[in-house]
Amino acid sequence: xxxxxxxxxxxxxxxxxxxxxxxxxxxxxxxxxxxxxxxxxxxxxxxxxxxxxxxxxxxxxxxxxxxxxxxxxxxxxxxxxxxxxxxxxxxxxxxxxxxxxxxxxxxxxxxxxxxxxxxxxxxxxxxxxxxxxxxxxxxxxxxxxxxxxxxxxxxxxxxxxxxxxxxxxxxxxxxxxxxxxxxxxxxxxxxxxxxxxxxxxxxxxxxxxxxxxxxxxxxxxxxxxxxxxxxxxxxxxxxxxxxxxxxxxxxxxxxxxxxxxxxxxxxxxxxxxxxxxxxxxxxxxxxxxxxxxxxxxxxxxxxxxxxxxxxxxxxxxxxxxxxxxxxxxxxxxxxxxxxxxxxxxxxxxxxxxxxxxxxxxxxxxxxxxxxxxxxxxxxxxxxxxxxxxxxxxxxxxxxxxxxxxxxxxxxxxxxxxxx
Length: 419
Ligand code: EPZ
Known about the structure:
There is one protein chain. The protein is 32% helix and 24% strand. The chain has 14 helices and 23 strands. The structure holds ligand EPZ.
């Protein structure tokens, strides 16, 4: 198995370029099923999860070409057929479930294995199914599978009990080809949903309000193929902002949208980090006395749960008491045990983690337990005394393009060890 080896204590300097957003590209690849024309995704991030969803489409007889030279993914679903995507792939990555809405809208019927949960929670899909049912889809659950069919999708008014990102996306994609008007209330407002709506509207959909809590979709008869460049990955950008803070370095991060970074900029500012926006770049100066802060993860525009682990690594090195409360996922503290192996002082009390900052973390043998936990361990290792070996780094490769190479370019002593 591969490991990432980090010798802590190096200052970072220079610039890093942020890739396109994983959580934009995944639903956009799923949405390409809605048209029989070719779709082109430019500047696509060559991530494990992106490769998996491409294989899911291939298992439905779509032609997907991944050009790693120019980072363009070409998708041709003209020969795609309904049927059942490879269950191994669906279980491997929950986001595969995002093809359900498009498949129902295109073919009227579909069967898919229930997506596995993962380390951060049970990850139910009840809101997805409730929304699709409201659009006239008959859903049958059994033996670990979802069977869905409809004669016609009819627009409806849907109120989400929770602003679920995936449920909002699945419903929006199905409603794009439904007859009549659909309103999604208490919708998720993440930037990736706005990007998906942008992609769908350029295909000919009629979607208004994406990025707010109320989205209105007027169904159309058909959608055409388009070329789309996804937004930058705000979580990768936030991860590098924390890298500057935890190593007390000053770096420039290219590829940010100020609007999307607001919750992370606000919290890092409160912590004492200096930041300066320059167009689509940000200069982060972490070489300052940082202060403990309290964080509560919330749906966008609140503080993102996908930045919780990274901030916990930083606050483990900031003198004083910080409290993090994770409100989105019920089990997103798997990184606490690993950070404690590095000397962090963290206590879990219900949904909160109480962090007492220590002078210095120490290198250790640790394991990534999920995508963002793995990123947090890299950040902790960058500031720790001595060498840290991080195992199970396949979790990290799901969401970060060559993270160790990008950090190496900033001057860190970090390498991937192929065992
Ligand atoms: C998306 O997951 C992201 N993944 C996650 O990023 C992110 O953490 C999450 O949104 C929250 O922002 C992708 O976009 C591919 P949810 P998703 O549906 O859609 C509950 C990463 O690190 N829920 O908003 O699965 C659910 O249990 C990943 O990049 C229901 O109860 O998230 C959870 O507690 C991790 N019923 C909460 O809502 C449902 O039907 C948020 O889930 C659906 C969700």
